Amino acid sequence: MKKIAVIYWSGTGNTEMMAKAVAEGAQGDNNEVKLLSVDKASVEDVMNADGVALGCPSMGAEVLEESEMEPFVQSLEKVVTGKPLVLFGSYDWGDGEWMRDWEERMKGYGANLIAEGLIVNLEPADQNLDACKKLGARLL
Description:
Low-potential electron donor to a number of redox enzymes. With 140 residues, the protein is α/β, with parallel strands linked by helices. The chain has helices spanning 14-26, 43-47, 69-75, 97-108, 126-137, and strands spanning 3-8, 32-37, 51-55, 84-91, 112-113, 118-121.
């Protein structure tokens, strides 16, 4: 049994929908999956997990949400080394620069990014939610 942490920030609910699908995909055979909004998450949740999924929409000039998600991601710098990790999030405009920046940053922290960051324009459709489930299953 693996422990998987799915931690996200969502403003409109789109990234939350994605997070729920990622968590569903990570369930597998009796895995312990914690689905947490970032305000309820702790560094210990990440440290104690065998795999981690982080979700955040693109904000402003293609950056992470700055009051809760950004400080949380900063707090992971020393604890994600070698940890299997996937990233996901929704966006309204732009070309996914925030996700590329986020991937580079997590690689710089030493995380083991096991898949390309999954980005979805606005509200996820069924095929997007299927992709989220597959992303979660990669953590197994």
